[in-house]
Specification:
Elements: H1 3-10, H2 14-24, H3 29-36, H4 40-48, H5 55-65, H6 69-73, H7 83-92, H8 97-130
Helix pairs in contact: 3-4
Length: 131
């Protein structure tokens, strides 16, 4: 799947994403329903936004559509770290005990610094609106 197409799917709602992925894989609503072992009416309801699938159905849909459940249900902004950070986290996961602890301490420090900055910005904004 091309990155451009993925970014388009992430900008869609779940019903739109499901329909788009189904069509991209060449499935009709009936063929996807058969593959997932549910009634076609359920696929129609999911694609119209009338109902949401169960976790078991999400798993079956992601297998049938050959995509991760994340790609099927989450917007890009709701997902985990960027691809670049994922690679860095994978590299860090191979550190030994002391190196790993150092990396965790550095990350914790950066996170605390960021949270403090956000808190200061919120306090400043609140003071401006209170005046």
């Amino acid at each position: 799947m091309q990155a451009f197409q993925q970014s388009q799917w992430f900008a869609m709602s779940f019903p739109e994403r499901l329909a788009s992925l189904r069509k991209a894989k060449g499935f009709t609503q009936r063929s996807l329903a058969d593959k997932v072992d549910i009634h076609i009416t359920q696929i129609q309801r999911y694609e119209s936004g009338a109902t949401q699938p169960t976790l078991d159905v999400i798993r079956k849909l992601s297998v049938a559509l050959s995509v991760s459940a994340d790609m099927l249900i989450f917007d890009d902004s709701e997902r985990g770290p960027s691809d670049a950070l994922k690679l860095q986290f994978e590299a860090v996961s191979q550190f030994d005990g002391e190196e790993l602890q150092t990396a965790q301490n550095v990350l914790e420090g950066l996170i605390l610094k960021h949270q403090a900055k956000q808190s200061m910005e919120r306090q400043s904004a609140n003071k401006k609106t209170a005046k």
